[in-house]
Design a protein that fits this description.
The protein contains no helices and 11 strands. It is mostly beta strands.
Length: 116
């Protein structure tokens, strides 16, 4: 199994920035894809951004130009730099990882609140 531990959430004012981190540990062979999802109260979990081992990334339309996903393959860590945050970005953010030998793993989530 793969364990994922997120950090970096918190309270920030609109227009501010936060950087989320997620470190993977456990039975790691090659994590093909790492991603961030989020879930706001009363809404379904949605993909925010994803990145492959090779560095290819994709983003939800709502965060393009504001969020940047990156990863350190050597440390099995993925980051989400969030700039120009909006109240509608408020959600629990979950780290997600996929590798063929163990399937999909989820972190416990970290709260991001954007409010004045």
């Amino acid at each position: 199994q793969v364990q994922l531990v997120e950090s970096g959430g918190g309270l920030v004012q609109p227009g501010g920035s936060l950087r989320l981190s997620c470190a993977a540990s456990g039975l790691i062979v090659s994590i093909e894809r790492m991603a961030w999802y989020r879930q706001a109260p009363g809404k379904q979990r949605e993909l925010v951004a994803a990145i492959t081992t090779g560095g290819s990334s994709n983003y939800a339309d709502s965060v393009k130009g504001r969020f940047t996903i990156s990863r350190d393959n050597a440390k099995n860590t993925v980051f989400l730099q969030m700039n120009r945050l909006r109240p509608e970005d408020t959600a629990v953010y979950y780290c997600n990882a996929f590798q063929f030998v163990t399937g999909t793993s989820w972190g416990q989530g970290t709260q991001v609140t954007v409010s004045s």
